[in-house]
Amino acid sequence: MGALMSTHIVCYSGGVASAIVAYEVVHRYGAENTLLINHNINPWVEDWDIKRFKQEVSDYVGVPITYVNMPDWDTKDQLDVCVDAKAFKVGIHPLCTNRLKTAPFHKWLDQNYPVRKGSCRTDVTLYYGFEKDEPARIERRRSILGEKGYRTAFPLKEWSGIISCTREIGIEPPLTYDVWKHANCTGCLRAGRQHWYVVYCRRQDVWDKAKRAEAIIGYSIIKGTYLKDLEEKFEQMRKAGIRADEKMKAPTFWAAAKRILGAQPSEEVLSCSVNLS
Ligand code: SF4
């Protein structure tokens, strides 16, 4: 009797880290045993070059992308789903992550790889592109998914000899990395003041829609301040020539912005991935 087949499911976000994981998983286990799961995002807030990158990596490794999308993904964005639900958060998590990613993924897993109560799917492993320096995030994800009966792996932390950039296989990372730190939605509802300053300077359309969403919902996106109350300060910063990109490290940004914005609150932006919690 042949060995049982295992399925290797890469949570494929559109960022470089999960693309490296996709390449390494296929290299190790073969294209025929690998799935690349992605949640397609409204092109208004997911840059065309992220979509180009996702497709190029998929073509290179020979695994088509399995899109697990929320209904109406191409007409609704992270702000629309929050306005529909009249909330920006579910518990401590951004509601948009749940609607755009977690809920569709959970449903897909239940339909395609269900777990019998109290058992574990030893034939399925879920892979994430979490970085070496995110041990707490890794342990949390491993624990949550383990309780649900799924094994997880984090190749960037656990495997050696892996590529460090997709340029090594001839694929340019998304151009968005020239401006943004992660391949998150533009106007990310997890992000803090630095991200929203960049949105203010570069995507006035997203900024205006986010302000309208705050007015409708009656809560602020950033803890402690509404976007409308930051507008004057951001304009002063823009006029003062403070760089509008996330390439600038947070302490450098805050050193430049402190006189106008005040002290730096704790607001680290993580890449956005399915929580399943
Ligand atoms: S990237 Fe940001 S805005 Fe988009 S779903 Fe995730 S938390 Fe929401």
Summarize the structure.
The chain is an alpha/beta fold and 277 residues long.
How would you explain this protein's 3D organization?
43% of the residues lie in helices and 10% in strands. It folds into 2 domains: 7-176, HUPs (Rossmann fold, 3-Layer(aba) Sandwich); 178-261, no CATH class. The model has no long low-confidence stretch (mean pLDDT 93). It has helices spanning 16-29, 48-61, 78-85, 95-112, 135-147, 155-158, 193-202, 204-217, 227-239, 250-261; strands at 7-11, 34-38, 65-67, 89-90, 93-94, 121-127, 150-153. The chain binds iron/sulfur cluster. Iron/sulfur cluster is lined by residues 78, 94, 96-97, 100, 184-185, 188-190, 272.
Provide key terms for this protein.
single chain; 277 residues; Rossmann fold; 5-stranded parallel β-sheet; two-stranded antiparallel sheet; 10 helices; binds iron/sulfur cluster
Q: How would you summarize the topology of this molecule?
A:
Blueprint lengths: L6 E5 L4 H14 L4 E5 L9 H14 L3 E3 L10 H8 L3 E2 L2 E2 H18 L8 E7 L7 H13 L2 E4 L1 H4 L34 H10 L1 H14 L9 H13 L10 H12 L16
Parallel strand pairs: 1-2, 1-6, 2-3, 6-7
Antiparallel strand pairs: 4-5
Helix pairs in contact: 1-2, 3-4, 3-8, 7-9
Iron/sulfur cluster binds next to α4.
Q: For the report, how would you describe the main beta sheet?
A: 5 strands, parallel
The H-and-E topology, N to C, reads as EHEHEHEEHEHEHHHHH
CATH topology of the largest domain: Rossmann fold
Tally of DSSP β-strands: 7
What gyration radius follows from the Cα positions, in whole Å?
20 Å
User: What is bound: which ligands?
Assistant: iron/sulfur cluster
Number of helices: 10
CATH class of the largest domain: Alpha Beta
CATH superfamily of the largest domain: HUPs
Return the domain count.
2
Helical percent range?
40-55%
Beta-strand portion reads 5-15%
Shape: globular
Distance between the termini: 38 Å
CATH architecture of the largest domain: 3-Layer(aba) Sandwich
